[in-house]
Amino acid sequence: MHELSLACSVVELVEKELALHGGGSVRCIEITIGDLSGVDNDAFLFSLNMVLERSAFAGARVMVDRVKPLAVCGVCGESFSPVSLYASCPKCGSYKTRLVSGQEFRLTSLIVETDK
Ligand SMILES: [Zn+2]
Predict the structure, then answer these.
(1) Residue 67 Cα to ligand 1 middle (Å)
(2) What is the residue range of 35's domain?
(3) Is residue 88 part of a domain?
């Protein structure tokens, strides 16, 4: 059900953005999802398409960019791709690592067609 509530918040975001820019019809919705965000791609897309169909944006295309996680070690400075949120540094074994990317979930862009 996590993905369904995310899908609903995406649609709310799109509604807000559209209102801010004076309306139009949404052609494409682009979303960035980090691999460590805990969002399941298939479940999310399924939910989003379901929610979109019942919204004013039925027919809008959805594009998802998955982002590979990247972490930096606070001890030796090694940067690596962690497999989990609490991965240790592959070089020195330290757990003082900082996640740089991989947890994002955001609306990247909207392609809107206006009548004017
Ligand atoms: Zn290290």
Answers:
(1) 22
(2) 2-67+102-113
(3) no
Tell me: pLDDT of 115 over 90. Answer: no
Q: Is 8 annotated as a binding residue?
A: no
Find the CATH number of the domain harbouring 48. Answer: 3.30.2320.50
Residue 19 included in any domain = yes
Q: Report pLDDT for 85.
A: 87
pLDDT at 23: 87
How many A from CA of 53 to the centre of ligand 1? 47
**Does 76 appear as a known binding residue?**
yes
pLDDT, tens digit (0-9, with 9 covering 90-100), for 11-70: 999 999 999 988 889 999 999 999 999 999 999 999 999 999 999 899 999 999 999 999
Q: What is the DSSP string of 74-101?
A: TTT--EE--SSTTPPPTTT--S-EEEEE
Alpha-carbon distance 97 to 90, whole Å?
A: 10
- Please tell me whether 73 is known to bind a ligand: yes
CA of 77 to the centre of ligand 1 (A): 6
Give the separation between CA 74 and CA 69, rounded to whole angstroms: 16
Q: In this structure, which amino acid lies at residue 67?
A: V
- Give the distance (Å) from ligand 1 centre to CA of residue 39: 28
Alpha carbon of 85 to ligand 1 centroid (Å): 15
